[in-house]
Amino acid sequence: MRVLIADDSVVSRHLLEATLRKWGYEVIGASDGAAAWDILQREDAPALAILDWMMPSMTGLEVCRLVRQMNRERYTYILLLTSRSQKEDLIEGMEAGADDYVVKPFDQHELKVRLRAGTRIIELQSELLAAREALREQATRDALTRLWNRSSILDILQRELARATREKRPLGVVLVDLDHFKAVNDTHGHFAGDAVLSEAGRRMQSDMREYDSLGRYGGEEFLVLLPGCDERSTCSSAERMRAHLANQPMVLSDTTVRMTASFGGTSFKPGVSSTAEQLIRRADEALYKAKDLGRNRVEYLDSGEDVDATAAKPAMARTTA
Fold first, then answer.
1. Which one of the listed residues 220, 221, 285, 299 is annotated catalytic?
2. Per the confidence metrics, is the pTM higher than 0.85?
């Protein structure tokens, strides 16, 4: 646990630093309030801080108030070090945002106990944040591939489409379907099929930019979103992913599998009104075209023309592998 010690007294600060290092803490020192505030604003700021009440340039109380005003998610536990022992002074310190206090000259046993309480609170908050992040991961990620799940990738499509409309930029939308995937399950078993899905997702993601998005749309289908990509760049990105899947066999536990995929793409054009549903339907039509023309290929259909709601079959109801 890292601890900031801010005290303008060199003797007092060094004594505190030596004591805390002996207890196993990593110590960062500051000689005044301004230096302490500068450290506590950083992304890697210590989670524990011991601030002397009276310091040049900025008091410990003022630093406390500034830290609490940041309203940072990761909590900073603050101990005030003070020679004041009047009840009114201590109340003022707590109201400024301090969690606890130690009266000078400090008693080592008392300081150790108070630091231990702060450490427990910081550790508990870290556990809560980790648990919340795990729940968020479960709610937004596909359990098998760890890609965005269907609802999340559709939410991202809505946001990217709104941004593309606002910024007058194109947006590539690609539906991907693994060819003859049922044969993998029938021949090698469902565990092999799961491995193929995960590896296919990993390969496609490795060929994408940081700000592109990839989600599992359903079964063996994936949805790819390519901000800023027009017809040419959408097809180029899809072809790169197709080749990566087709040219390298997938090594499973007891065999290798050659897997190809069909890609259907379209793109939002600035100035042409398109909904997310229309873009997916158009990409789905392009995907059917790729299947009909022999699979393992990229087909593109312009999104400019209106798409009949009955023109494309629902992706989840597709029977052709």
1. 220
2. no
